[in-house]
Amino acid sequence: MLSDEQPTTLIIESELSYATFLHDLWEQKMGRNGEAVFSEREKEIQLNKSADIIWNPFCVDCNDRKVITKLYQAMKEQSDEMLSEKISEITMGILDYLEQMEGMIPYPLDYSADLDCIGLFKLMDVKMDYKEDGYYDNFVNYIKTIHRICGIGLFIFVSLKSYFTEGQLEEIYKDLMYEKVYILDIENVQKNILSCEKTILLDRDCCIIEMN
After folding, report:
1. What per-residue confidence (pLDDT) applies to 134?
2. 24/185 Cα distance (integer angstroms)
3. How far apart are CA 186 and CA 169, in angstroms?
4. What are the C-alpha distances in Å from 184 to residues 2, 65, 66, 112, 211?
């Protein structure tokens, strides 16, 4: 049972069971069927839509495609509501610039007279601006960004304790608990158990043991 008030660590001792479980998660993340079931208030969670599986904290990017898409959508909604006249002014300015340019060169030009705000965002390469100091800050900012912008509520980590110190993990968990997200860390080897986490061991005999 996962909780948004306490991170959960699942230790799977059997290498085969560990690999099988991770492969199952991968299949579900790709939109295919799997055996593992995650649910919230008796409603099944689709991992490819409502969860993020982080296999390597070095590879997360606060400006990956799904973040930028959601960011542009949110900005467009605000623009349509508050700044619709402004985008028209910008479009007219660009068209005037192109008309003047057309008169300055000996070549026929063809261009679109339609510019929406998302086109403008792409033109100006609008993106999230975090001043990270190493992979730790980038990792935490990524989780917060994905949760706030994309609405992801379940984060599954693979061997998170191999990348961060106990102190860093405690700070990560503290930050993310404020976000009210569900956290599951999947480990293959038992490491130091933190007081803030719930730890479950699936031993080699497939017995489930609650460690704390």
Report:
1. 86
2. 15
3. 14
4. 8, 24, 22, 48, 15
AA letter at 181: V
Supply the pTM of this predicted model. 0.85
Q: Are 152 and 146 in contact (CB under 8 A)?
A: yes
Q: Where are the domains of the chain?
A: 8-62+128-210, 74-123
Half-sphere exposure of 131 (CA within 13 A, CB side): 0
| Integer angstrom CA distances of residue 186 from 18, 20, 78, 133, 162 | 9, 12, 39, 26, 11
CATH fold of 8-62+128-210, please? Rossmann fold (3.40.50)
pLDDT, one tens digit per residue, over 179-202 is 999 999 999 999 989 999 999 999
What is the end-to-end Cα distance of the chain in Å, rounded?
A: 14
- Taking the CA of residue 61 as centre, how many other CA atoms within 13 Å lie in the half-sphere pointing to its CB? 8
Which comes out higher in pLDDT, residue 43 or 126?
126
Task: Name the percent of the chain in helix, strand, coil, to the closest 5.
Answer: 45, 15, 40
